[in-house]
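pls design
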């Protein structure tokens, strides 16, 4: 966000709302046949924002992710 605001000459003080929800669909994890050491699953995000008394905006994204089983078995590090 800070880089976006600098690149587009935005005023952070005009941001009235910012909500970001991120989730992964761990129920549909699968291992592609040719990649038996990897897991594939979908991560998604929903971002809602409102700035400068304008209408609220929403953006939803989804992406297929590929991780080695070893990485997920050791757990994804927590972000503090």
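designed seq:
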């Amino acid at each position: 966000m800070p880089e976006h605001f600098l690149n587009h000459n935005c005023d952070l003080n005009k941001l009235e709302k910012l909500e970001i929800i991120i989730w992964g669909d761990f129920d549909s994890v699968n291992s592609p046949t040719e990649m038996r050491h990897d897991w594939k699953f979908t991560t998604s995000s929903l971002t809602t924002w409102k700035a400068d008394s304008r209408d609220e905006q929403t953006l939803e994204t989804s992406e297929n992710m590929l991780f080695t089983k070893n990485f997920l078995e050791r757990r994804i590090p927590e972000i503090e």
